[in-house]
Amino acid sequence: MKKVRAVVFFSLIFLYINPGCFSQKWELGFGGGISYYVGDLNPTGHFKFPHPAGTVFVKRILTNRWTIRAGFTYMGVYADDQQGDFAYQDVRNLNFQSNIFELHAAAELNFFPYGMTKAFRNEKIRKWTPYLFVGIGGYYYDPVTTYNGTTTQLQPLGTEGQETDTYYQDRKLYSRFMPCIPFGMGVKFNIKSKMTLAIEYGMRLTFNDYLDDVSTDYAINSEIVDEHGAVAGVLSNRSRGNFAGISNDHYQRGIKTDLDWYGYLGVSLSFRIRDKTTCQGNGLQTSKRK
C-alpha cells in the first residue's frame, strides 16, 4: 500500500509540473532597481542606504507554473555609523561601501497559470501572476572606506586582528568570494505576446558576517599596527567622543552571531527569443514553433 501511495503521489506531482502541452520558451531580460544591506552598521533598517543596482538574465519557461533562470546582478551597499539609530554607533564611528557582483540560478513558481497558449486541466491563462523564487549563487565583494580623502580597501588591513602573528593567529583574512541563497517574491505582467514586465523583491542569505568588515571584537591595536601598519590601526578603531584615542582592545565591535544580508528591489523587462511547444495526447505528439 505504501508503494502504491508513493507512486500515486509522485505521479500527481509529475502531472502538475508536466502538463499535456510542454512549453520550451527562452527569454532574455534586463532590469534595474535599488540594493541595500542589513548588518552590524545597519542592524534594523530595511531599504536604508539604498544604492542603484542592475541585472541581466536568461530564462527558460518550462510550464505555465515553473520557470528557471540564470542571471548576473550588480548591487552596491554601504552604511555609516554616523547615520545610525543607536548611540553606540555614533561612538564606534565606522563606515563602509562595497560593490557586489553576483551570479545566480533560481527557480520561479507562478501562483497562477501564466504565459502559455494552452494550459493543463483547462486552467485559465492569466495575463499576470504573483510568483516566488529561490536559488543558489555566488558573489564577489570588496569593502572599502574613505580615509584622508583616499579610498582604502579594508580586507587586507586585518582590522579585527586577522593574520597577526601572536594573539590572533586563529583569525584569517575573510574571503571576498562567497556563496549565497537568493529568495523572494514578485509579480509579472504579460504586456505583449512576447514581453513580460516584472516587479521583484528579494533578499540574499550571505553565509558571511564581513560584508561590512565588522564582525567580532576589537583586536589589540598595537598588534594590528605591527602587522599591517598605522592606517590599519586607525581604521580598526575610529571611536570618537570620550572614547577617542582610548584602547578598545577586546571590547565588542560587532555581533559575530548575526550574518549580514543584502537585498534587491527592481523592475525588469524580458523578451521571448524562442518558443517551442510540444503537445501530447492520444499517443500523438506535435511540435509548434513561433
Structure characterization notes:
- The protein has 290 residues and is mainly β.
- It is built from four helices and eleven strands; from the N terminus they run αβββαββββββααββ.
- It has helices spanning 2-17, 87-92, 221-228, 230-236, and strands at residues 21-38, 51-61, 66-80, 95-110, 128-141, 144-147, 150-153, 177-192, 195-205, 261-281, 284-289.
- The protein has an eight-stranded antiparallel beta barrel with strand order 1-2-3-4-5-8-9-10. It has a two-stranded antiparallel sheet with strand order 6-7.
- Helices cover 13% and strands 47% of the residues.
- The model is unreliable at 1-23 and 280-290 (pLDDT under 50).
- Helix 3 (221-228) packs antiparallel against helix 4 (230-236).
- It has a domain at 35-48 and 64-187 and 201-261.
